[in-house]
Amino acid sequence: MLKMLVFDIDGVISDGKRYTDGKQLDLKTVHMRDMDAIVLLSKNGYKVGCISGEDNEFSRQFSKINEIDFVRLGCKDKESALHEIENMYHIDADEICYIGDGKYDIPALQLAGLAICPSDAIKEVKDISDIILKCRGGEGCLAECYSILKKSEKRSRDIIELTENSLEQFKTRVKEHQSLVEEVLEDKVYFPAVNQAIGMIVESYRKEGQIYLCGNGGSAADAQHLAAELVGRFYLERKAWGAEALTTNTSIITALANDYDYSLIFARQIEAKARRGDILIGITTSGTSENICNAFKKARDIGVKTILMTGEISEHLEILGYTDCLLSVPSKDTPQIQEIHIMTGHLICQFVEQQLVELEYKKWRSE
After folding, report:
1. What does the alpha-carbon distance between residue 365 and residue 367 come to, in Å, rounded to a whole number?
2. How far is 254 from 261, CA to CA, in rounded Å?
3. What angle do CA 104, 109, 111 make, to 5 degrees?
4. Structural domain boundaries, residue 124
5. Is residue 199 located within the same domain as residue 267?
6. Contact present, 81 and 186 (Cβ < 8 Å)
7. Do 189 and 267 belong together in one domain?
8. Which of 18, 50, 254, 258 has a 20 to 30 A CA-CA distance from 6?
9. Is residue 97 domain-resident?
10. Across the beta sheet with 114-117, what order do the strands follow?
11. Domain shared by 196 and 135, yes or no
């Protein structure tokens, strides 16, 4: 966060030119917007400093402005002046905005947290500046900088407010998830159905069956996730079990969608791969996915048992006529349904693994 604005005088506050009456009087002009900006910066809590390589009547008179906290005139080593500011005000260089235009400003610009220059600064200064102003030196550089800092402050406040609001939304969302989990726990149908699904999968694997999974969108990712848990492992070291997500072969999917119809992308694969005794798990939050319904129809024709993971659905959905085990989450909110689906999938993988490993152990003990 910036705490101080420091500027060069000649080429920033003034246009860097010297005007004379032809005798002894030198004249320079200062834009009134810059005078106002110095006052506004001070009122908004910024410290203000000027470091000038010149020490003349103009710079001395300018430096007497009440709102300017730090002044160094006739100073070519502006980097050292910034270090002096750090020690004097306990401000890090990263918290200083420096505005300069010439070669003596370069070290200070490189050290400061925010480096700004007028549009007519030398090329070397422009190359290292974070911001190049629209105005030229003497045309209101400080006023433009003040506007930039105020916009930055507003963005910072907006980010803080957004973060605070996001935290509240996060807490609300977690509570909603917790409420749904509790509702599922109290559901007298859901967990018996989960137990049924576990038994179906265990029985299929005992008879050398294969598990197929399908879904669309986020549910396709869940299908792949759960297939990986079965082929690999969940908690226990054991042999690999056959499980395949029908969503992974893009050549097959695009060929079927192009040559036949998207509604057949899973049914054709079931026809090609599945055999009686296998299991098909369909994941659809709405229960209306036509491609999954067609896959369930084909599974029924072949003798493949089906498990449907869905949300709160109508009793009259066509797919229910081809479903052997229904896992219906009592919600119509898609993200929340998906959260329960993956939790349910993990529970199924855990207990399928546990039961099959126990059966293998008992078989081994009896031999």
Report:
1. 6
2. 10
3. 115
4. 4-155
5. yes
6. no
7. yes
8. 18
9. yes
10. 70-72, 47-51, 4-7, 96-99, 114-117, 131-132
11. no
Beta strand pairing status for 305-310 and 279-283? parallel
Alpha carbon distances (Å) from 27 to 21, 34, 37, 46: 8, 17, 22, 29
In the chain, what is the straight-line distance between the N-terminal and C-terminal CA atoms, in Å? 73
User: Which tokens hold the place of 311?
Assistant: 């949300």
Residue type, 191: F
* Gap between the Cα atoms of 247 and 242, Å rounded: 16
Among the listed residues 322, 305, 320, 312, the one whose alpha carbon sits nearest the alpha carbon of residue 198: 305
- CA nearest neighbour of 350 among 201, 249, 137, 224: 201
Flag whether 96 is in a domain.
Answer: yes
Question: What pTM value is reported for the model?
Answer: 0.60
| Strands 211-215 vs 279-283: parallel, antiparallel or unpaired | parallel
pLDDT tens digit sequence for 252-309: 999 999 999 999 999 999 999 999 999 999 999 999 999 999 999 999 999 999 999 9
Which long-range contacts does 296-301 make (Cβ < 8 Å, 24+ apart)? 296/322, 296/323, 297/267, 297/322, 298/267, 298/270, 298/271, 299/270, 299/274
Q: DSSP state, 277?
A: T
pLDDT, one tens digit per residue, over 13-67 is: 888 776 666 565 566 778 888 889 999 999 988 999 999 988 888 888 888 888 9
For residue 298, what are the contacts with CB-CB under 8 A and spacing of at least 6?
267, 270, 271
Are both 204 and 316 inside the same structural domain? yes
